[in-house]
Amino acid sequence: MTEGDVAAFTRLGSAVREALSERGFSTPTAPQRLAIPPLAARQNTLVIAPTGSGKTETAMLPVFDHLVADDGPAEGFGALYVTPLRALNRDMLERLEWWGEYLDLEVAVRHGDTTQYERGKQAEDPPDVLITTPETLQAMLTGDRLRSGLEDVSHVVVDEVHELAASKRGAQLSIGLERLRDLAGEFQRIGLSATVGEPAEVGKFLTGGRLCEIREIDVGSNVDVSVRRPAVTDEDETLAGTLMTEPDTASHVRLIRDLVEDHESTLIFVNTRQTAEALGSRFTELDLPIGVHHGSLSKEARIDVEDRFKSGDLDGLLCTSSMELGIDVGRVDHVIQYKSPRQVTRLLQRIGRAGHRRDEVSSGTIVTTNPDDTFEALAIARRARAGEVEPAAIHEGSLDVVANQIPGIVQSRGSKHVSDVYETISRAYPFRDLSEERFRNVLSELHRNRIVWFDEGEDRIETSGSTWQYVYSNLSMIPDEETYEVHDIASSTQIGTLDERFVVNFARPGEVFVQRGEMWRIAEIDDDEARVKVSPIEDPAGEVPSWIGQEIPVPAAVAGEVGEIRDVAASQLEVGGDADAVGRELTTRYPGDERTLADACSQLERQLEADAPMPTADRLVLERQGRSVVLNACFGHMANETLGRILSALLGQRAGSSVGLETDPYRIELEVPNSIATSDVLEVLEETDPDHVEAIVELGLKRSDALAFRLSQVSAKFGALKRWQGSGRLSNDRLLAALEDTPMYEESIREVFHEDLDVERASSILDGIQSGNLEVVTYRGRTAIGQGGRSSGKELLAPENADASVIRTVRERIQNDRIILLCTHCREWKAKTKVKRVQEQPECPECESTRIAALNPWADEVVTAVRAEEKDEQQDEMTERAFRNASLVQSHGKQAVVAMAARGVGPHNAAQIINRHREDESAFYRDILSKEREYARTQSFWD
């Protein structure tokens, strides 16, 4: 044992040291060696170390020691352990209960699901350590008996503090901790994080700007990541047939399968829930022991799959960020990241789940799908090893959080002077620069909305009749959003769900998006039923998804490094190197195999072979074909989105019509009117004043659905929506007009700029172009790199033939549909039955004719027309169609009945379906589905 080892544990009292011996802890972990000394000295401390390296015990051993040593347990709560997820609460309780029992300290959990009985017990006899969430702390701060218990708090531990620092939940918590300080006096603050950029800033967030010790383990040096894009093999061709997918996708499935088989316990991270489900369905088809875990699953389903993975029943677990935050699923020896993780922080957080026991190296593989993906993953992997982590984007001065906290403070503390409430809120680090004028504007808005009473004469804030209800309805800063079901208009099957944010901001009939690994076109939106009806894209190769899903934004630094890699590779290709040689050279600096890097470099090779300029970190390439203009720019999501809005707004102004806009980290794609020349685009870049970027973007936002949606959420936190909404749903235009020049509007604009845009960088890009530090080169036509963005949304796309489960659904639906059988010979016999009960060759029981028409169950007017002695023109047409129908049934029997029972499929289309030669029944139903979808897409054009 080293001197450092001894020093760490000797800082703890005898009771805790005995517990350590009983538990078998003889040697401290690296975080414990570093952090126990300042923690034992009761200093505010931020501990940064890999997930699973013992951070919880690092924080809690000194806390337990203080609670035992301080003349016995306090009467109230001694320590709070705050976690961002309820699931973490469950894990923390299991980890800490043993220590509590051994040291005679009570450890308990309190969150939204805690029973009323348990809550009552905790209020009467507070546990020594309470594990809770930020929202439950808000509720506790308003209860009289609980507030009394909170007066004894001497320690607060905030787990996954980096996650909270970058959210409005965290901004709310920062004020909550200052409210707690008003009750309990100064207490020790301990933050735990797996990884974070700018630790000092996060330390200030944790402590309200007070002194904070930073104890950090170099996470990057303990990470071993490789980047791989698999080559398509003969096995993948076979596998593609089994999975009804493309060979390229099959190769991804095969590589992930092989990696899982090579390890004992593997987490497979993906970036979206849809991808998790799409990949999961492939593994289910192959009968592999790999489960799926994401936030849309029920709590019971998540716990079940966690337990099965922990017990070894499952070898792999497909998950989204739901498994990032340290939920205990036992030992993980490898992590797979499917597609680029987009950010260094996410890679370290995810890969850190593997091999972290006792300072082991965390091993992981990033499986990539295209050149952008590969270069981005390589840049992120290198930056992770070097510890170049993105800073936490703290929400500075969120006015809706201020609006949320004022009622809570007066509800819990009674009538307060304005300066007292302002002092508490402005002590919280995100609100250190909040001016008293802004604070009073928020207060006046709350008074107008009758959430609190503001007595301007006495300068006091008091509760109103609505305060109590407001506080308990607004414990969380997570906005309530409705969920829309997505249904295939042809098969009536539910595809998935969409958040209200997506439907309000984007969804319009005709727009294209990706869900469940497939591309869909919106046909109809039913707000009353909260349902979106869609039809699939038959040939996705010709479509660009208008919306891919909630993407994790790629930072400018990562996108810039992709540009640098391109620059280095291009210079080698230009002097005679080939993709293989350049790929080999890149492996000396980046953690990828030669084949993967050569594959990515082949895109650059094609770019240069077409005599097209290379987009790099300091060269933008403007290409054009027809109305499609692409500005290749390696500046990341937020800067490109900002630049794109500038171009769209100013070019649209010139043309007098709208300009279509799509952005990704490496491209800004515009659909411009024919009147816009390439020189117009250049002119905007070269002449727009960089100082005017913010004003131009804000002007463009003023009438946007995106701003209106945020405004509706923010104004709900001010209690303003009811006042403006009245009894009906408020239109976006009315909402924007009603709330302009209010604190709600100011906060909504701030939030859009904070979360989606990078005005400062966009301004510096324009400045760089205009000063000559950045080069802009034009090219006529489309380039290999410019078109690279078109495939970004097609992750796991199914081929044109629909997958087996959809075909089964269509077959079952048609077989159970009812039809009318009508004899067109005697015209007397008619029967209504299900398709599945029809004979292979229908025959009239009255006259034994086989000329039987198969009609829709609502086609009584056709029956009337066929039987009529004297017919009008419309009845003549109906009769003729019925005879054609009967002729087809006479020739092809039940097969014709099935085809014509489909939606929008008449005798002509049914004949086309029947006359095709097919290998199996599935192909027959696939053709039917194709015709149904064609009808669904075009039915609005029919009378």
From TrEMBL:
Biological process per Gene Ontology, one example term: DNA repair
Pfam families in the record: DEAD, DEAD_assoc, Helicase_C, WHD_Lhr
Segments forming domain Helicase C-terminal: 255-400
Domain (Helicase ATP-binding) ranges: 36-214
Coiled-coil ranges from the UniProt annotation: none
Top-rank taxon: Archaea
Record bears the keyword DNA damage: yes
Any GO MF annotation of the entry: DNA binding
Cleavable signal peptide: none
Keywords: ATP-binding, DNA damage, DNA repair, DNA-binding, Helicase, Hydrolase, Isomerase, Nucleotide-binding
Claim: GTP-binding is one of the keywords in the record: no
Similarity section: Belongs to the Lhr helicase family. Lhr-Core subfamily.
Protein name (record): DEAD/DEAH box helicase
Lineage summary: Archaea, Methanobacteriati, Methanobacteriota, Stenosarchaea group, Halobacteria
